[in-house]
Amino acid sequence: MVLALAKEIEMRKTSSSFQLPTFNPEIIETIYFGGGTPSILEISDLKLLIDTVYSYYKVVENPEITVEANPDDLIANVLSSRAQSRDFYEEYRSLGINRLSIGIQSFFEDDLKMMNRAHNSEEAKKCLELATQYFDNISIDLIYGIPNMSNEKWLQNIETALSFKIPHISSYALTVEPKTALHTFIQKGIIPQPDDEVAQEHFQILVDKLTENDFIHYELSNFGKENYFSKNNSSYWLGKKYIGIGPSAHSYDGEKRSWNVSNNSLYLKSIQENKLPSEFEILSKTDRYNEYVMTGLRTIWGISLDRIENEFGTTYLDYLNQQAAKYIEDHLLFVDENILRTTQRGKFLSDGIASDLFLLNLE
Q: pLDDT tens-digit profile of 247-273?
């Protein structure tokens, strides 16, 4: 699989297919290992992939290079016979990796068991004790709206995270996916269904507590200290181009989007046959308008009404103003310097509001 990923990086650069998103002569600003469990990869695997990017693309002098990691993987790597903590983390840094995104989810044992996480609360804390000795730029994930989680317990989760002086926190409401252990527990009545009102309370507690601690709420689910926003994710929200490598990965060049086949065997077979295993779509003007509305409303950068008019035309601007009027009246949206943004009360509802600002079937 790792060799196939390296080959796809090469093929993305050298392929002349007019159908897929094109990226020449783009300069790479961020490299992100995610979408699974990249922390199980050997140092040599990560080195091969990073070296391959540098071989085929021009990369900025100090790119943000992030690895998503599970706490149990980090602990296992550190405790394994092949590496002590100093060796392991310094090997990461020697590759240019300068940011970790760690899937903590919760610091409580019962929550982790309910979510069927592989790590325990002790590993969650231990991995941060070690990682913070070698990395300054660390993000963790926390889940709110967990059934039976009191406001006090949720606040304790946040305070535990803050005790490690983490500069970035991504936090999401619990969602119940079909065919998971959690879904089965809820169906059997063992665990109650997540409550939207509880989730909204937890969200407001999160916003208030992190704001008190000098975090900037720069995207609906993301909070960062100054100079610690995720450059990778910010690029997505700001509509920049990106290349996705591997099964299920998506790519975007401003006009076209492609996505790789999700089946591992089919992906490997295609790469071995020198075929890019991708489908694609050309985004219409309405598609691009809807995407800008969706991503813009989730961020502190908001939706530029000047950009709407210049890029999409007065018909789109008039529609947006018309749809936004009721939310402005209800103090969920506001306009400042011709930028449409959510109010503090509207942040939690931004996805629902955005869907009502979408324009359908104009083209």
A: 999 999 888 899 999 999 999 999 999
Q: 67: which strand partners?
A: 33, 100
User: Which candidate, 123, 139, 126, places its Cα nearest to that of 172?
Assistant: 139
Rounded distance between C-alpha atoms, residue 230 and residue 222, angstroms: 9
- The yes-or-no verdict on residue 232 having pLDDT over 60 is yes
* In contact, 232 and 32? CB cutoff 8 Å: yes
Structural contact between residues 66 and 140, judged by C-beta atoms closer than 8 angstroms: no
- Six token digits for residue 79: 């405790």
Q: What are phi and psi of 103, to 5 degrees?
A: -85, 70
The torsion defined by the Cα of 250, 65, 172 and 188, in degrees rounded to 10, comes to: 70
For residue 131, pLDDT beyond 50: yes
Take residue 214 and report the two structure tokens written for it. 């000098």
pTM of the predicted protein model: 0.91
What stretch of H or E contains 58? strand 58-69
Q: What is the C-alpha separation between 97 and 118, in angstroms, rounded?
A: 24
How far is it, in rounded angstroms, from Cα 81 to Cα 92? 17
| Percentage of residues in the chain having pLDDT higher than 70 | 92
| Separation of alpha carbons 40 and 177, rounded Å | 24
Q: Is 146 within 8 Å of 114 (Cβ atoms)?
A: yes
337 torsion bin: left (phi>0), alpha (psi -120 to 50), beta (else): left
Q: In what order do the strands lie in the sheet with 256-260?
A: 250-252, 256-260, 278-282
